[in-house]
Amino acid sequence: MLFILLLVLLFVGFGLAEYALHRRNLALIPVRVQVNGTRGKSSVTRLIAAGLRAGGTRVVAKVTGTNPRFIISDTEEHPVRRLGKANILEELRMVRLANRYRAEALVIECMALVPEYQRVENRMLIRPTHGVITNVRADHLDVMGPTVSDVAKALSQTIPHRGLFFTAERGREFQTLRSRTPHETVLTVTNPGTVRDEEMTGFGYIEHKENVALALAVCSSLGVGRQEALAGMQRSLPDSGAMRLIRVEDQGKVLELVNTLAANDPDSVSMLWQMVRARSEERIVLVNCRRDRTDRSRQLAELVSSWECSHIVATGGLPRVFLRRAQELGVPKDKLTDLGEDRPPVEVYKRVLGLAGKQALVFATGNTVGYGETLIAYFQSRGEGRGARGLSLCLRLNYGD
Fold first, then answer.
1. Distance, CA of 268 to chain centre
2. In what side-by-side order are the strands of the sheet with 185-189?
3. Pairing of strands 253-259, 130-133
């Protein structure tokens, strides 16, 4: 019994010493920006870091998105290696690494979903000087829900108690965020309308004005000029989940594939569909399902069933959940194609090419992890070689308020 008590005391003592060291490490980084929200966290994290770097600040950043990365410069980044599942305690290691690189600023994406964990990450692990919430949408309702208002309350756990708070949320959940902003915290609401169309053309991928406006506001608060910050953002590496348009010419046909697999809440997917649907009169929707995300498959069926498209192709795990729900909503059976249960990507590619006429838009949505990444990589390879010609294009985004 005494031995067990000694072990417990030793464990507690080690934990207290570790946390004291962590607090010292945090104090050595004067600027700490924590980015949270439903969509766009990884992109905004990268944009802020790039903008601050362009202003002469030594910045490191960490994103948790499609592929967790520790970012050192505009051209150098490394995967975040984990022995097991993701755990917010890895932020201790990220702060140590930031100090190793003598960082003057740390820009870090919130990795917690459970509301209490978000609070712990904010109050104990990061203690941000600048807090960012990109937006509030209907995603991860099983953890933060059941309503979108509950999601807003969960995300508000990362609003700094003192310091600066920025958000691009301008919808009905903004009032929840504002009501939970402490009096000592300065709130800034950004407007995508302040970003001009010509400023977006400098990005080599499809970026959102909302994200750019948000990042520019954070950089401005830290003394970085608009043009300087924007130039840094445009030359930095995008997140692997950033939306791209891949043009493939094969067998006398032209496919324009829009990769939106990283956007997995209905509002974002619908917005992206509206952005690109006018590019072609013939549209093929490619939905990648996941075996452990059957609720999302049903949700996607409810979303795409009303879209004007010529074909809907389902891939991945348990696509019958998506297909069954789509038929229940009135989608004709001959409009649906089942290519699920991890078919070889070449088979999916050939079927999509066969369904297409001379020119078609292929809108890829659903889930990106695992098979989704492999599938998109195959389409990308067909756009770059093997007798086909490809080109990654940047769309000019025209957003209103």
1. 11
2. 77-79, 69-71, 59-63, 105-109, 31-36, 130-133, 163-167, 185-189
3. unpaired
- Over residues 309-332, the mean pLDDT reads 95
Phi, psi of 272, deg, nearest 5:
-65, -40
Q: Of 10-24, 234-248, 308-322, which gets the smallest average pLDDT?
A: 10-24
What are the C-alpha distances in Å from 203 to residues 73, 236, 273, 297?
17, 9, 20, 32
Structure-block tokens of residue 365: 């949505």
Report the distance separating Cα 152 and Cα 334, nearest Å: 41
Structural contact between residues 258 and 276, judged by C-beta atoms closer than 8 angstroms: yes
**Domain boundaries defined on the chain:** 15-235, 244-393
Reduced to 3 states (helix: H, G, I; strand: E, B; else coil), residue 325 is: helix
Token pair recorded at residue 47: 């944009």
Beta strands in 97-174 (DSSP E): 105-109, 130-133, 163-167
Strand, helix or coil for residue 213: helix
Cα 203 to Cα 46: distance, rounded to the nearest angstrom: 13
> 382 and 248 in contact (C-beta within 8 Å)?
yes
Q: Is the N-terminal amide bond of 344 cis, ω within 30° of 0?
A: no
Distance CA(224)–CA(392), nearest Å, equals 30
Just give the CATH number of 244-393. 3.90.190.20
The angle subtended at Cα 250 by Cα 246 and Cα 252, nearest 5°, is: 125
Show the 3-state SS of 266-316: HHHHHHHHHHHHHHCCCEEEEEEECCCCHHHHHHHHHHHCCCCCCEEEEEE
Q: How confident is the model at residue 394 (pLDDT cuts 50, 70, 90)?
A: very low
Give φ, ψ of 229 to 5 degrees: -65, -45
Q: Are 304 and 277 in contact (CB under 8 A)?
A: no
pLDDT tens readout for residues 324-349:
999 999 999 999 999 988 789 999 99
CA distance 37 to 158: 10
- The architecture CATH gives domain 15-235: 3-Layer(aba) Sandwich (3.40)
